Amino acid sequence: xxxxxxxxxxxxxxxxxxxxxxxxxxxxxxxxxxxxxxxxxxxxxxxxxxxxxxxxxxxxxxxxxxxxxxxxxxxxxxxxxxxxxxxxxxxxxxxxxxxxxxxxxxxxxxxxxxxxxxxxxxxxxxxxxxxxxxxxxxxxxxxxxxxxxxxxxxxxxxxxxxxxxxxxxxxxxxxxxxxxxxxxxxxxxxxxxxxxxxxxxxxxxxxxxxxxxxxxxxxxxxxxxxxxxxxxxxxxxxxxxxxxxxxxxxxxxxxxxxxxxxxxxxxxxxxxxxxxxxxxxxxxx
Length: 285
Hints:
The structure is a single chain. By secondary structure, this protein is an alpha+beta fold. It has 2 domains: 5-68, Winged helix-like DNA-binding domain superfamily/Winged helix DNA-binding domain (Arc Repressor Mutant, subunit A, Orthogonal Bundle), CATH 1.10.10.10; 75-269, Chorismate lyase-like (Chorismate lyase). It has 8 helices and 11 strands. It has helices at 5-19, 31-38, 42-54, 92-101, 120-126, 176-182, 201-207, 263-269, and strands at 58-61, 65-68, 75-78, 106-108, 112-117, 133-143, 146-156, 187-197, 217-226, 231-240, 244-247. The strands form 3 sheets. Strands 4, 5, 6, 7, 8, 9 and 10 form a 7-stranded antiparallel sheet that branches. A two-stranded antiparallel ribbon has the order 1-2. The protein is elongated.
């Protein structure tokens, strides 16, 4: 083997992981054991572990050791508008179809509907006065029974006069975009904001995340516009960062092009991203 010793140690451990010799959840040798086996310094052993951690192959629990990460088969969500339905990626039937293309099944938990007064963040997003009455529709979403994302949409209460099902606790099977269109409220566009952050307590509980912050969440906040350029909806969707990838199409993309990049393409196009993160969601506090 050639290259720095720490990389040789990391490559040796990686081969053991790739071959299945070290199964997911298995504990790696300690720093002391690596130092003894490879006649290495502590910094060299530590850098080898850091190399594997950066690649997402292992994780360390303080005071317990370093363990092989469970493999993840991510869902790819196309955030741009679906040409056939006009719905945004990650919503309703579009989301269900994308999950189905991955060979898995998307389901939702019970819909929670509430009447609220708009806080500062919601009022600013929808450009409405503070404390305006709004409808909140919250759904937990699952893939093959595993917690996958949390989605909350906010609508002006005044829309319920034309679209009364917004107040129903039942799921709107055709999707709220299609339902609102049937009520004469046509979605003509939206913008998305994307943030990577540390999960809050409710997200840790829902997703079953470790509390050490090593798995973050991706929060996508979407503001939708109707045919009169009015802001009619704010949707906030929170995903586990390690189980999801996102695709944005711009311009005339040929239909024959795959919507899902290969792992090699993803590695080239999306190197590790460093982001400033903060606890909790300002949108929901």
